[in-house]
Design brief:
BirA Bifunctional Protein, domain 2; single chain; binds '5'-O-(N-(L-prolyl)-sulfamoyl)adenosine; 442 residues; globular; 5-stranded mixed beta sheet; 2 domains; 14 helices
Length: 442
């Protein structure tokens, strides 16, 4: 993408309404625009990051055996009357009437709707296990929408729903999602810690929140230091091996890790005092096992091996991709701007032409632009005639991991400068060396 043809509306002043660094940087870098409390448009680079995060989430859901669908944002109230949650959900639910005076709502979550899909088609345990997921916008009329997209009213969620014939099967499904979550967050450069959590309005008795430690996190969390050194399972981990999954979950649930609501000070005090971590955390994912809560209320039964009808056992599994954009920035920035981990940066490489119109600079920049684009890298080429300082500041603010700087003097000598945003290192290379190095990055 050539910057001269792009839409990247940067803001110079620090926005006063933004209380935390991720919100400030997202506004300054032209990623989002607020329209009303907790309701945002996603501008080009914000959307690019959101899409990259969503792509990682999809890959890991698919790898774990979940199947993608897409349910609507608007739902009929009648489904929620069946489960009993229409009245119970309270003021967080946005209730709407259509022209025929029918009660509708903007979905805050989809347990009822997916149960309706399930009961329409699935009759036998032979079709199980089944896990259906989608990425869809949700609306929750939060009392205090704040911190930008961290706690929005309209926000993107990946929500998956598992169906099993019995509790043992449902636990295996739960474990697969648990492992998929560890991998998903690690691929985004985040250290996520699964913590025993409260189930709130979703219900059920087994639940984990996936928490990222960050000073600006909304909740207080307590955990064993061991988690900080643990690595997520590799890409070839066998999701069809129930025992292997259970072992990984055991390993991640044995050391102490709890959110404020579930904290047990006495248990915590038994950990060696040098290993006690008390910190703030951001919840980026939340998984639940709630058994037959919805299937009993909504008559979602399947035939078991015993020839009898059984209410299906369910779990639900949420990730907040829009919240993740902010969480990644909280975890990875410096005084100059965002430092995107590999894989989620809006562009992989930035090219700074220090003197557009200079034949040598134009030629070298075009060469890099073509070669890198051809290898499938996402490139932002600053071909504008802004001041050099402004160009450097923009690349750092937006956080492009690799920056190629081509100025008349270097180009005259056949060289360009390569800057690594994340470690700040710079090197001067010949054009060919730089081309070789950067085209072999993918
Ligand atoms: C699980 C999937 C659920 O709704 N039902 C379907 C279950 N869980 S949850 O914990 O309430 O939400 C799942 C994830 O969504 C993100 N999230 C938000 N992101 C931005 N703004 C919000 N107001 C917001 N509320 C929830 C979080 O990442 C949460 O873990």
């Amino acid at each position: 993408m050539r910057l001269s043809q792009y839409f990247l509306p940067l803001i110079k002043e620090t926005p006063k309404e933004a209380e935390i660094v991720s919100h400030r940087l997202m506004l300054r870098a032209g990623m989002i625009k607020q329209h009303s409390a907790g309701i945002y448009s996603w501008l080009p680079i914000g959307l690019k990051v959101l899409n990259k995060i969503s792509a990682i989430v999809r890959e890991e859901q698919n790898r774990a055996g979940a199947v993608e669908i897409l349910m609507p944002t608007l739902q009929p109230a009648d489904l929620w009357r069946e489960s009993g949650r229409y009245d119970a959900y309270g003021a967080e639910m946005l209730r709407i009437k259509d022209r025929h005076d029918r009660d509708m709502l903007y979905g805050p979550t989809n347990e009822e709707m997916v149960t309706d899909i399930f009961r329409s088609y699935v009759r036998s345990y032979k079709s199980l296990p089944l896990n259906l997921y989608h990425l869809q916008w949700k609306f929750r009329d939060e009392v205090r929408p704040r911190f930008g997209v961290m706690r929005g009213r309209e926000f993107l969620m990946k929500d998956a729903y598992s169906f099993d014939i019995d509790e043992a099967g449902a636990r295996a499904s739960y474990n697969r999602m648990f492992v998929a979550y560890l991998r998903t967050f690690e691929r985004m450069g985040l250290k996520s810690i699964p913590m025993q959590a409260d189930t709130g309005p979703i219900g059920g008795d087994l639940s984990h929140e996936f928490i990222i430690l960050a000073d600006t996190g909304e909740s207080e969390v307590f955990c064993d230091k061991k988690f900080l050194d643990m690595k997520a399972p590799p890409a070839d981990v066998d999701f069809s091996d129930d025992e292997a999954m259970a072992d990984i979950v055991k390993q991640y649930t044995t050391p102490y890790a709890r959110t404020e609501e579930m904290h047990d000070a006495e248990m915590f005090s038994k950990i060696d005092s040098g290993s006690q971590v008390t910190a703030r955390g951001i919840e980026v994912g939340h998984i639940f096992y709630f058994g037959t809560k919805y299937s009993e209320a909504m008559n979602a039964n399947v035939m078991g091996p015993d020839g009898k009808e059984h209410p299906v056992h369910m779990g639900s599994y949420g990730i907040g991709p829009s919240r993740l954009v902010a969480a990644i920035i909280e975890a990875s920035h410096d005084e100059n701007g965002i430092r995107w981990p590999k894989g989620v940066a809006p562009f992989d490489v930035g090219i700074i032409n220090m003197k557009p119109g200079n034949e040598g600079c134009d030629e070298v920049c075009n060469k890099f632009y073509k070669a890198l684009t051809a290898t499938g890298q996402d490139v932002l080429y600053d071909d504008t005639d802004k001041r050099a300082g402004e160009k450097f500041a923009m690349m750092d603010l937006v956080g492009l991991p690799i920056q190629i700087i081509a100025g008349p003097r270097g180009v005259g000598e056949g060289t360009v400068e390569i800057k690594n945003r994340n470690d700040g290192s710079r090197e001067t290379l010949s054009v060919d060396e730089a081309l070789n190095k950067l085209t072999s990055l993918t």
